[in-house]
Batch of 2 targets.
Target 1
Amino acid sequence: MTMPFLDLRLATRRNGSRDGELMLVSPSGQRWLSAGPTVKTMQALLDNWALQAPELESRRRSLDASGWNEGETFDPDECMAPLPRAYQWADASVYRNHARLIYQWRNEPIPPRYEDEPLVYQGGSDGMIGPREPIVAIDEAHLVDLEAEIAVITTDVPMGVTIEQAADRIALVVLLNDVSLRGLIPGELAKGFGFYQSKPATSFAPVAVTPGALGPAWKDCMLDLPVRIELNGERFGEPHANSDVVFNFAQIIAHLARTRCLVAGSIVGAGTISNADPESGSACITEARVREQLSGVPLDRLRPYLRHGDRVRICAMGPHGEHVFGAIDQQVVIHSPG
Amino acid sequence: MTMPFLDLRLATRRNGSRDGELMLVSPSGQRWLSAGPTVKTMQALLDNWALQAPELESRRRSLDASGWNEGETFDPDECMAPLPRAYQWADASVYRNHARLIYQWRNEPIPPRYEDEPLVYQGGSDGMIGPREPIVAIDEAHLVDLEAEIAVITTDVPMGVTIEQAADRIALVVLLNDVSLRGLIPGELAKGFGFYQSKPATSFAPVAVTPGALGPAWKDCMLDLPVRIELNGERFGEPHANSDVVFNFAQIIAHLARTRCLVAGSIVGAGTISNADPESGSACITEARVREQLSGVPLDRLRPYLRHGDRVRICAMGPHGEHVFGAIDQQVVIHSPG
């Protein structure tokens, strides 16, 4: 069971190993210290969360008292994804407005039972991208899209948990870019087996935060903040992550665990953030294009998908303008193999 | 790069930890020794395959010379899945006859481009079941089915590998039971996002074997042996794993790696084994039921799906009757939570 009062900010530092080094980050996000020899990696912490997270928190409190003087300056360039490789990445689609616009794009009805149970897919979790690493794709014709999303990382979740129990299994909250190759999606989904090639590696903001550290910004098992997306330095969207959602994270986890356990370190997403208000912009290019189409822009004048050299920036801003998870800041690199 | 000449049999022993202890298994499958302090787990070996697998092999050779006297008796009851938790489990469907019969059952056409590129889905990899652990389901009404399959475990696979390069990334071959909840499949696939609840945890035979250890039983990047399935002690099927396949493992891996890297320890399956010859029986109950239907058995007289207490046994027999991967031998337990 997780402790909802835990107040921790964690990240993973590139150190040449596959899993990196677990970093304890200061509440200001400006300083960091190694989590120490007893818990070397994020996965190791999640494996033993009930014992080690409270220990880390008491260490964090001492550091707060001493002003983090022994710490070093936090630099997101040094960060890997909080979990550089994970045993599970399961993503849902709980934003009604996103479903509405995306299925308009696909020219298909919204999937059956969309309002009755979370619509989920099993994503690839073997390699996650750090906040400043490039989005590498092999062909612009694959229509490279960003998708700004919130996810949680769980402790162990037994099969058949209730929604209430599922809420207690949420260890950390993260911000991510679920890069999608829109050009490959229709062909893959037509086969009926879900996404594979169309969902390349996912990118993560550097800092994973406990629900307790979010304070009032964690509400009804959702992040209660807007998420800001910038494309090449310009505002692209700023939808609120807790607006018009069909299901919250506890409900998604309970759905996932109906016939299976989830092991500690499972990453569970809520899908592309989307608000009905067009003023909020979009958290993916496809949705922005559908909105343009609906407002009469001709097909050949719609905004383009991501191109070589484009820069994507995603962050969630707290009430005092602070970057809660740090920022994703990535450049697109089109790189044909061979 | 893997070394095709490597001759290793490996397993994972339950020791109270999440990843177990890596076991070096004798060529006879009768004896084992700990792989030693430098490579404690299967994942650690795969992470550093090029360096550590040859070291393990030279140790295996010394043990062969001394008759494995220092070893202990190999007991599959002590085994976890070879990789108890994995960063990826991607499964294909390459047996033409299985596709033909299954889509007959679904009353749908075989997916588009089935012969042009491997049909694959992203499976859940966070928790794998050992060879003698029960198949736990919450409801017989979910229609619990077995699926006997061969898979490979890869080393690191870069994005965009050729088929030839992909073949060199195959570290190990494994035998598994891809348990499926047939009753949940139509509802999930109708949503278009693939399997989730309908594919609970997968079970594995205890011994993972290098292609080099398979000798002539590894042919054209496929296992060239029949796989025997028994249900409650009776022969259920014995289809050959290298008969009438659309794609081999190198082709599947190259397809998976088109837009993504695969990290070391990715498990890549070929789908439910199936032969056109009805005498070979079936590797899943659904297929056997479709065959019964086609031969005129009325719906209410078809053989049932798995029930509480049923026993499933799966093994692959070498030319001298030896169990190449050891046997999966599981009992079904229906266990409603709460």
Target 2
Amino acid sequence: MRSEQIEALLADVAAGRLAPDAAMTRLRHLPFEDLSFARIDHHRALRQGQPEVVFCEGKTTEQVVAICERLAVATGSFLGTRVPEATAAELLRRFPRMAWNPLARTAYLAPSAETAAPRSTGCILVVCAGTSDLPVAEEAAVVAEAFGHPVERLTDVGVAGLHRLLAAGDQLARASVIIVVAGMEGALPSVVGGLVSVPVIAVPTSIGYGASFGGLAALLAMLNSCAPGITVVNIDNGFGAAAAASRICRG
Amino acid sequence: MRSEQIEALLADVAAGRLAPDAAMTRLRHLPFEDLSFARIDHHRALRQGQPEVVFCEGKTTEQVVAICERLAVATGSFLGTRVPEATAAELLRRFPRMAWNPLARTAYLAPSAETAAPRSTGCILVVCAGTSDLPVAEEAAVVAEAFGHPVERLTDVGVAGLHRLLAAGDQLARASVIIVVAGMEGALPSVVGGLVSVPVIAVPTSIGYGASFGGLAALLAMLNSCAPGITVVNIDNGFGAAAAASRICRG
Amino acid sequence: MRSEQIEALLADVAAGRLAPDAAMTRLRHLPFEDLSFARIDHHRALRQGQPEVVFCEGKTTEQVVAICERLAVATGSFLGTRVPEATAAELLRRFPRMAWNPLARTAYLAPSAETAAPRSTGCILVVCAGTSDLPVAEEAAVVAEAFGHPVERLTDVGVAGLHRLLAAGDQLARASVIIVVAGMEGALPSVVGGLVSVPVIAVPTSIGYGASFGGLAALLAMLNSCAPGITVVNIDNGFGAAAAASRICRG
Amino acid sequence: MRSEQIEALLADVAAGRLAPDAAMTRLRHLPFEDLSFARIDHHRALRQGQPEVVFCEGKTTEQVVAICERLAVATGSFLGTRVPEATAAELLRRFPRMAWNPLARTAYLAPSAETAAPRSTGCILVVCAGTSDLPVAEEAAVVAEAFGHPVERLTDVGVAGLHRLLAAGDQLARASVIIVVAGMEGALPSVVGGLVSVPVIAVPTSIGYGASFGGLAALLAMLNSCAPGITVVNIDNGFGAAAAASRICRG
Amino acid sequence: MRSEQIEALLADVAAGRLAPDAAMTRLRHLPFEDLSFARIDHHRALRQGQPEVVFCEGKTTEQVVAICERLAVATGSFLGTRVPEATAAELLRRFPRMAWNPLARTAYLAPSAETAAPRSTGCILVVCAGTSDLPVAEEAAVVAEAFGHPVERLTDVGVAGLHRLLAAGDQLARASVIIVVAGMEGALPSVVGGLVSVPVIAVPTSIGYGASFGGLAALLAMLNSCAPGITVVNIDNGFGAAAAASRICRG
Amino acid sequence: MRSEQIEALLADVAAGRLAPDAAMTRLRHLPFEDLSFARIDHHRALRQGQPEVVFCEGKTTEQVVAICERLAVATGSFLGTRVPEATAAELLRRFPRMAWNPLARTAYLAPSAETAAPRSTGCILVVCAGTSDLPVAEEAAVVAEAFGHPVERLTDVGVAGLHRLLAAGDQLARASVIIVVAGMEGALPSVVGGLVSVPVIAVPTSIGYGASFGGLAALLAMLNSCAPGITVVNIDNGFGAAAAASRICRG
Amino acid sequence: MRSEQIEALLADVAAGRLAPDAAMTRLRHLPFEDLSFARIDHHRALRQGQPEVVFCEGKTTEQVVAICERLAVATGSFLGTRVPEATAAELLRRFPRMAWNPLARTAYLAPSAETAAPRSTGCILVVCAGTSDLPVAEEAAVVAEAFGHPVERLTDVGVAGLHRLLAAGDQLARASVIIVVAGMEGALPSVVGGLVSVPVIAVPTSIGYGASFGGLAALLAMLNSCAPGITVVNIDNGFGAAAAASRICRG
Amino acid sequence: MRSEQIEALLADVAAGRLAPDAAMTRLRHLPFEDLSFARIDHHRALRQGQPEVVFCEGKTTEQVVAICERLAVATGSFLGTRVPEATAAELLRRFPRMAWNPLARTAYLAPSAETAAPRSTGCILVVCAGTSDLPVAEEAAVVAEAFGHPVERLTDVGVAGLHRLLAAGDQLARASVIIVVAGMEGALPSVVGGLVSVPVIAVPTSIGYGASFGGLAALLAMLNSCAPGITVVNIDNGFGAAAAASRICRG
């Protein structure tokens, strides 16, 4: 809640334009909608600059559908991540215009043209170490696009074949923010971070042989990067990386 | 190594302005200086937009002094982190102008006015959960200042007393990037991230009772933040947070 | 075994009202019933003030049914947690009056009116961070109700949107004990603990992206809470939180 | 921030008794005092029912002294935990009336008689498994006494010699809340929890051979207690257990 | 290889009763049988006093059947643990006399009367904390019986209801070795170890809520037992406990 | 990229045999092929002496088939590891000559005779502790053969029956490199390493009871081997061991 | 508390030989002595067959001396483990006859001849993998001797030089119980367990390079031993191994 | 023990050249020397091709000196690792010719010229990521030299400044085996492994900020390397890497 809003409200009360009771009610009447099992935060776009995104894992299809319907009514748009196939099918039945990306497991109902956020000018580059890391990278790319940013992709450029990465110098140079998705030893963000001066967001994935321990190896490697200024999000959290990149591009 | 540099060099060779041997030498003669125990990367400022910073833990005083002297000669400036007290004393003896911050354990020889980087316009806010987290927060603040950014500080605003944080809404609103330093349960970045739309960089610290496990509790909490778009650096890594914030402010 | 019981027994022996052998037998004949694979503790309600609850995970349907039938005979009531769907179906076939809650996975045969425990006056509030944490919160709520306590619920009030929690100040103020269920970074108990003076019991859930490590992140965060006096139960252990809240409300 | 306070303030503004600017200032002027490195929360006693306690680990002697002096001025009392010996000596020099407990490492300046909180009627029992666990148990006991509760102690009653615990049945029966402090296998809370119906708060300690892993073994055991309704605080966190017990006794 | 065997062999060579080549062959011809994917150690009964037991997890049905057939031919008996249901069915088809225990997942072809090992006189008591721990306890009991020892069972005597255990004092007193199987907090071996003077072997099980971490909580608790002289085997390793108990009873 | 290649290229440019633009193109035109979801590194055989191997876990059948077809066209050969059964079936349909090993889960299209790499003279011995470890050992053996090395196998020689290993002294003596595959306590590499002077590569497997923690126990044991000069690869990583052995045999 | 004791007491009460009150007092008057910070369990020798041993880590010198003096008065003997040097010096000043072993860190006051326990006939063999493991092995040996058992020692027989162990076949054959102390990969118990049929107790030590993680590597290896019937005690817990061996030898 | 030795011995017995008793004695008299606290393995050079190296951590100065003196007498040489400064001083007093390297903490008494092992022809390259990793790298280099191999060093070539590594292409190309020492994210071995075809041995170090967890981050990264054929030794184990490299160079 911004202080300007409170100042305006107080001014109204002082001027007699608003009764104290009504002011109290308004302060209480916060901008969310209560579905009993979920409180939809319609004002997040104002407060954080991004629409609320529905994390679908652990929710029933009924819950997801109800939330998305309310979002569609209120904003003309919604974005779901980690959408199970069955849930996606049910959503598609109701919102035929919705885009379902089975690799990224995202379900996106784009806003109509007039309400869409103006696209930022900077470009977000999503770099992906190996083919097996693609679902996470794709989640990041889809979310970033839904948040209104131009996105480029660079895939299968692991550190064991450096020439593939070095050959993409132009793409690296063009980016405003770089999201680097890697499993196994998680070394790619360090190498990318040493080549560029823009922000680098590292996403560890759970891909790897035994002692990757579900992505722990890559996560620790990225946290310990010797390239200064690399930041890290949770394992397999392509959505979080896109949200962070979006904060930067709007910053 | 940028492709333009190679193109220029190839053009010189083709034009007979440069012998192949000399071109080969130049490609080899990369912009670092070899002290046998360290290779100083003088061109990092060009490549990554930040000066090389000397991480002093695990290095002998002799090694640190030798590296700093070369940096001073080459660039007129140096910045050391995790500087042991004895090493700082020896550096101060040689560089009386150097700033030694014992809380942050940083040693900074500022460049002379004419070579200093132009200061960015955005402001970096360093938020610190508790008094015990101050050394890490201070490292972040000192490094960010050395990198040329205006810095503000907000201290002792842990989540168990939310009103202290909520009272600082103006400071939060003013920042371009926010570094949030917290130990114990590491919840502060989530709360801050829910209040602002700018990038939030979380720094877990090793402060806490038994099951904080040297900062692991705070680290995991921050990686699992329910506020979208929080990124995380290593435990106690104030330097890394400042470097990331600097990448963003220049971005 | 209470000392009064022994004293009474010794008095009976001294008075010749009880033969030593019979006294010995009585001391041995402790109040449990042996089903060979389970020893039902009928006196727990006396000793601990709560009925024995059947934890159904890892037990066969046959074992669960046999235990519940004995409990129904002896006390007119039973409560099962973590009940698999098939086991619930079999129980329902035999006890049509039983309440089966598929979200909480609880099966409850309420006692008949005259044997029901008198309801406590204090209210237990179950606060739930996100929709995905609902099954654990619901287990806590159902168990607390079965133990005879009035229960209120407050759902989807995660710390990234503080206004949703702050808007529920009345509910928080009304509670005698608050159970806070949260996954991801587990920050909600710290924030709630900072707002109220009543006991707060934190329940970490296994909900979250990769580095939540099955709830470990939330568990560690809650153990390290900077709000003084938060206590914690096991991951996903809604039952345990309700049992602890019940101990407090009867205390 | 309580809604009544806002209501009163809004009424004042509506009545012209308070200018909007002044109201804004007052909303900002929250009840903490800013020492630049610490924000003292003088109103915590109102909000949470307990005075703010100074956690001294990681703070310099100067910082601790400054905070305690402000607390003494504002409330006539302070309580420090984890107080290093040198800090305690400096505090004693300034506050000769202060009680310094070197085993518990607590420093307590009791309030003068007229400002002391009314003592609760229930009794808190601190049970300690072994002699090596005494410092943690003593921290719990001292803090509980400072919070105004009668405290009893029961020491060296580990589960490998059950008769020692069983002989203390009267003490167990008398308690309103029981804090159980144990290292090694952490089994004592389960046994105590099976004997009583009042709330049991378990405190794991870092005492033990190799695979206790700094108290992790006891912590996990307590979280997995088969006695329903045991809650757990952080390793070695006697303070936290006392704060939780105090919440219950006031509840 | 025992020194007596070598001495006898050397004596034979010296006496000309055995050619050096033949002696060499005999030293090489060690007592195992090579099935290419398995080397059956027929002499283990001599060397270690126990028949070789077939651990079936991770082996194909074909491999298990082949190994068991060779063992049946060579010794008239076999014992399989962790036998999948399908493998058991195939074994039963070929060895109708075989005993299949689906709870313990053991498959045992008892030796014919004349070759059976003489039964030891001491009794092995298998104590089981909860009904959910029964499969592990049963594996221990079946294996101990197959190794020729009298076995008693005591079930559902967890530490939260001590009276159930204390009522079984006679059984505890009668045992030569006690195997204690427990999940959750793993406290039962400490309590049993404090009551008896005979060897106690603790078996942690993987039963429990979230933070049992697959039995780690119980394992650590047992390793840290405050009852002196408790030893521990691997999580869920009923077989190993029986083998250890058998070593003791023959010792 | 080797310096000789650059020198040659620079010489061509200097001699006018190659235009700068063309040289630039050639430097850019690095030897990989872009399938959008994968960049095939055809020159790896030159650079690292081994063909690129397709790790199939986490790739769709379509992706694997597309990659293998390109490799077959370019080199007449391919080798896949961790091949799911369905993927193998699809590959077999297209490449009937392909060898599918269901135990090792490898799919190998051998090169035609004239392009096959010359076989090395040294022999790689794959030692396997137990029958359950066979799939990993077999992966190592198949890959080593595909890389052109003679391979021998020695199976079921765990340390609890040392005579089985000691009887195989000749095989151990014959090997140039020994790969030792073991789960459970992972002791076999230490024993083998104490018997031979050639390189020993240890492969931990995920086989074992509870506290093997998916191979962690064996991994840690091997890293801590008291036999000097044992090196270790990832859990279950038979492929990695074969690749390392191949580097040594060509070394 | 044994049932015979209760039966005798009940008989006395029935016969009028004992008043109920007096009987109650006697049941209460349990056989321990209360020093306020410790309850000495004088009857443990009767109950568990072993004297109470004083674990000195974490106790002050004053506490240890007070406990030992009471034990000396009551039993004429005491045994301390993990005794700090200063504590040992103070004990020696008071008990000049006491044996202080600085390598094992044990302090032992042997009972006078007439009260000493009869020595068992079986022999306990303590096998030690490396010289660095000696302190733990020596603790085991000293404790076993104090418990009245003949002890033999076998040192520096790690698995990387098997011939050193195999040469000691006679010693292995002679033992009734074998304690195997090993750090690093912890493989020695598996090898010993494969050679003998008597009970083998494994003691992991915290000796090793980085990834031994304070003995965790050896602990896990021993728990996963492929030699059936190995049991394990805590890391560095020589005392526990001796206590377990003593239980077996008296069994 | 080689089979040829046994064959020769058996032939001697058969020929009457050796009495059975004497043969038995000889078989027993294995080639180690018993110092009671250590068994020196003089024949290791024959069996494993490398002299026994004294790991000095956890041994007293007296033990180290005694072992080194026996080695000097028997072989004219010794090599100690992890030598504490005080122990080194005492060794230097007795062996003035000994080389003491305080950075690597090695103490080496080189053999006299005539007994020195013939030097291998291949070169071992020790690559070190950062200056802080130098002690481990230097241990590897000193040990490799003592084992008779030519050694080159390449220092401070971390992956965040790739040009420093790429500029050393000649050194990489020249090596027979490469040891790569790195802390932090441990990415260097993957990059080096992608550039060369010779064996690469990775050594993680314990250098790094908080979440390096004592080298665990680097260890896991190296085990998960995407460059095929990288093998790994224990954290900080420069000695082990040198021993492995030596096995390869002699292979």
